[in-house]
């Protein structure tokens, strides 16, 4: 079993790699976008710039979210990851507002002259290759450690793959003097980003308001139900904080057993839940049946 410190180090490394990739792509897209005048590439540069901010926030989040509970944070610091995901959502929405404004402005004014060069295609293809590699790596580590911040980062960069593909189509149209393709492509990018923003925002908001993770109550019910020493149980409460889950429940035990035996049954319930669910902390209250 991987230790908490090993998990933290692995999350930090992948988050830092994401920051480095975002710095490279932002600079590359900005230079080529300014040279060619492509709104699609400039919108991608802005998107990557906000990705850079998001990646930096994610790096900060994974550095601090695994800190142990203290006197002021009795449940640990996991919520930092949820706040990180929410901030990334807001950054994505800001991206959409600028892209939509510029695209509509160009469509209505007709100012859409673009100097499409081989570098226009190089920067987009390079972006797609890097984003595919980066999003896969982030998803893998996010799933391994159940990190919402890294999953949000992975979703962030997986949208770049789609948006870059759309821009590639727009540039191809512009190369054949269909200049409307570029702002139209930018609008499609905005729709993609808005869709992912909603998905990110909903999940992070649910965690921040302590909504029970989908299906977790049912899973705990099935685990406890199979423990014969537990006569009955109720009041299952679940909350999420970053990669961690906190479970409280009441169990009923035989009223004729000793306090020590009741404690042992409570411990058995805790161990059963911990063995089936990752990153969970359990509090069991035993009552006489």
Protein model, in words:
There is one protein chain. The chain is mostly helical and about 290 residues long. It folds into two domains: about 5-210, Alpha-lytic protease prodomain-like (Up-down Bundle); about 215-289, Cation efflux protein, cytoplasmic domain (Alpha-Beta Plaits), CATH 3.30.70.1350. It is built from eight helices and three strands; from the N terminus they run αααααααββαβ. The protein has a three-stranded mixed beta sheet. α8 (about 260-275) links the parallel β2 (about 245-255) and β3 (about 280-289). α1 packs antiparallel against α2, α2 packs antiparallel against α3 and α3 runs antiparallel to α6. The mean pLDDT is about 80.
**Helical run tally:** 8
Low-pLDDT residue spans: none
CATH topology label of the largest domain: Alpha-lytic protease prodomain-like
Domain count: the total is 2
Q: What composes the largest sheet?
A: 3 strands, mixed
Q: Provide the β-strand percentage band.
A: 5-15%
User: Which CATH top level class of the largest domain fits?
Assistant: Mainly Alpha
Into which percent range does the helicity of residues fall? over 70%
